[in-house]
Structures are given as C-alpha cells and as structure tokens.
Amino acid sequence: MSPLLQSIYGGLSSEERRKIQQLKQQNPNKSDEETILGFLDERKKLKRRKEMRQHMKPVSTRIVRKWQVVLKGKGERHFYIENGKPIQWIGETHKHPDGTLMSGKEHKEGVSKELFHFYDLKEKHLKHLSKETTVIKWEELLKFKRRFKKVVTNKKTGRKKTVKYGQAGKAKDGGDRIRPNTSKGDAYCARSNKIKGNWRSDPNSPNNLSRKKWKCHGNKSSR
Hints:
Blueprint (H helix, E strand, L loop, with lengths): L2 H8 L3 H13 L5 H24 L5 H12 L5 E5 L2 E5 L3 E3 L5 E3 L12 E2 L5 H4 L11 H7 L1 E8 L6 E8 L15 H11 L12 H8 L2 E2 L2 E2 L2
Antiparallel strand pairs: 1-2, 1-5, 3-4, 6-7, 8-9
Helix pairs in contact: 2-3
C-alpha cells in the first residue's frame, strides 16, 4: 500500500475501517488498494446523492393533482405559438406588468413565452391543432369563441393588447344573446358580479366590458 493511501486509511473512522474490512472479506481477490479506493469512490457518490436530495424540492400533492387534471384534459388550456403552430403549455404561468399572460413562474426576458387561451387563438393557428396538442370539437370552439374585441394600450409601456369578451353565437331561440333589462340580464349581472379577482379595478377587463354590454348596475340589468 502506498504511503498516500496509508495516510488516507489512517484518517478514516473506526466505522469506515470496519466497512473496508467487510468489503475485503467479501472480495478476497481484490488488493487492499483496490478495496480502499472502491470504498472511497462509493462514499463520494453517496455524499453527492445526499447533497442533491437536500436541494431537491418535494413534489406536493397539489402539483400531482394538477398534473392529473392536465392529463385528463380538464381546466383552462394555454398555448404558445412556435413556428406558426400552437403548442399547449402545462407549466406554471405569471402575468407581465402589462397584463399579458406569460409562461414560467417568474418573467425571464427572451425565455418566457406569451400564452393564449384557447378562444384567443387565430384561425390560422386553430387549423394546426391536432391530437398531439388537444382534442377540439366545434361545439367547444363556439363556446369559447368571443364576440367582441377591444385594443387596449398600456400608458406606461405603450404596449398594445387585444381584449376579447362576450360569448359568440346566437341564443337558443336564434336571437341576440345580450338582452339588457330582462330576467336573463338580471341573472347574468348577478352571476358576473360574484366573480372573484381584481376585475373591478380594470375598466378594460373582459368581465367589466361584458357587464357594460349587458348594462349591469350591481346585480341588475337596465336599459
């Protein structure tokens, strides 16, 4: 055994020396040097694994449930555009200061992607959707298609965004969906007034713009 290896062996604890003796008994054909070096190499790997485990964040049951929901195809779908085609995004999201929905937990310039809801996709993007992205039926498309849109300019950044609101299509009787000063209007105003979030502080939020079309004042619809 070399002097360097003898020095290393002498610096080991009694427990570590005992393990080396056990390894020597299990592999009598190996030299003392091979046995000691093999033990040191394995100890280094175990130490590295332990360090990695300490830095790993445990996966919460909430994340697991969320992933299961994604696999089932439920919930709000988000897409980003790549080479003119929509790709479904299933990771975390955040909002840019101007209100644009972006990919990732935090904003990273050049990395975060602008996300679109299913009903925000343009027709040229919709034609590329397939079973690899999501399963889409025409009834679902009509349900989420929006009737109106408004271009809003952020006064601080100058950035423009299009706000789409109001369900497209006709009512069941073939008439207009929007019917202010009716029992249907009162029901819509009461329902939309209960929506949570900070939409009240934003006059250009989809809910505020829709309520304006329905002429909502609190829970009532007027002429």
